[in-house]
């Protein structure tokens, strides 16, 4: 069985608080092997990771920056320096809109030199197309442009569908409940058993891959529902909860009602609201605002969610 483990290392908006660090989400995919990444890397991310016994920042393979506001990337400098001090040798890939420009500036600050490669990968931030920016044998990372006043994107972790054997169908075809015959059929597509040829296609079932989407900071736009369609988990910007905030000059974030609308449109299974403004000190009051949605939660630092 595979699982996607999501750890919220930071859940504040703009200014950190005693209880909320800057934006960063750790993704750990466990299959036959472990694979780890970050969605955003706000200031203090490495310290937050060190506070989680189940998070090992040295195993992070790739970092996906949603946009280049400091509360979403300022932790890169410290994290990269610490990785170097811990003698990292594996390359680190950093993705984002205009990544080559910003990663170059960050890695050239100060006199330090790195003993491991840091590779920047630009992500398209205009248009409506969903782009596959990284492909693994078992999953892909996808991106699509968002609306935030500066180049910004949302990301999706999308596990590939799996073809599995339906044991009930297999038994009806005459196979035993278990045994080496199953592996043979999976490996070759068919096998002879007690005089009959049994095909994998006769007893297969599709196990739908898991999908986790992170919007980063954004105003409402059609691309959110497009990339989040059918997601197991949508991690959505929810800086402001009041309806009137959308009328304030310079505000580039959705209201709660707008998040609810896109969640319905995309038919997502679960929504976690993050990037919470420091003006909200009472989480119980926020939870009351989503009491009508059993599949909505308010993110908090060090929250761990498993999709399996």
**Portion of residues in helices?**
10-25%
Total domain count: 2
If classified by CATH, what would the architecture of the largest domain be? Answer: 4-Layer Sandwich
CATH fold field value of the largest domain: Metallo-beta-lactamase, Chain A
List keywords for this structure.
alpha/beta, 7-stranded mixed sheet, 2 domains, single chain, Metallo-beta-lactamase, Chain A, 308 residues, globular
Verbal overview:
With 308 residues, the protein is of the alpha/beta class. It folds into two domains: 3-161 and 208-307, Ribonuclease Z/Hydroxyacylglutathione hydrolase-like (Metallo-beta-lactamase, Chain A), CATH 3.60.15.10; 163-205, no CATH class. Helices cover 22% and strands 31% of the residues. The chain has nine helices and 20 strands. The strands form five sheets. The chain has a seven-stranded mixed beta sheet with strand order 7-6-5-4-3-1-20. The chain has a seven-stranded mixed beta sheet with strand order 8-9-10-15-16-17-19. Helix 4 links the parallel strand 6 (92-96) and strand 7 (118-122). Helix 7 (222-228) packs across helix 8 (256-266). The longest helix is centred in the N-terminal third of the chain and has 11 residues, at 75-85. It is globular. The relative contact order is 0.16. Mean pLDDT is 91; it is low at 245-249.
Quick synopsis:
This protein has 308 residues and is α/β, with parallel strands linked by helices.
């Amino acid at each position: 069985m595979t699982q996607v483990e999501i750890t919220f290392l930071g859940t504040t908006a703009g200014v950190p608080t005693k209880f909320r660090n800057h934006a960063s989400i750790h993704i750990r995919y466990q299959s036959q092997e472990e694979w780890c990444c970050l969605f955003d890397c706000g200031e203090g991310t490495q310290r937050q990771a060190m506070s989680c016994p189940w998070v090992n920042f040295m195993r992070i393979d790739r970092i996906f920056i949603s946009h280049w506001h400091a509360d979403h990337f300022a932790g890169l400098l410290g994290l990269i320096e610490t990785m170097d001090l811990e003698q990292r040798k594996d390359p680190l890939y950093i993705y984002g809109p205009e990544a080559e420009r910003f990663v170059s500036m960050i890695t050239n600050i100060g006199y330090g030199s790195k003993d491991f490669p840091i590779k920047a990968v630009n992500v398209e931030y205009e248009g409506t197309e969903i782009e596959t920016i990284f492909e693994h044998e078992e999953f892909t990372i996808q991106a699509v442009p968002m609306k935030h006043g500066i180049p910004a994107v949302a990301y999706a972790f999308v596990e590939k569908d799996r073809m599995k054997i339906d044991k009930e169908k297999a038994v009806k075809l005459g196979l035993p409940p278990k045994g080496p015959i199953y592996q043979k059929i999976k490996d070759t597509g068919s096998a002879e058993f007690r005089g009959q040829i049994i095909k994998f296609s006769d007893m297969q079932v599709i196990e739908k891959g898991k999908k986790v989407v992170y919007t980063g900071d954004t105003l409402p736009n059609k691309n959110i529902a497009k990339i989040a369609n059918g997601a197991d988990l949508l991690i959505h910007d929810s800086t402001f909860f009041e309806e009137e905030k959308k009328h304030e000059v310079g505000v580039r974030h959705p209201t709660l009602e707008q998040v609810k609308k896109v969640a319905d449109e995309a038919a997502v299974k679960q929504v976690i609201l993050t990037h919470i403004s420091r003006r909200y000190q009472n989480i119980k009051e926020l939870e009351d605002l989503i009491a009508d949605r059993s599949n909505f939660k308010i993110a908090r630092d060090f929250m761990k969610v498993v999709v399996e």
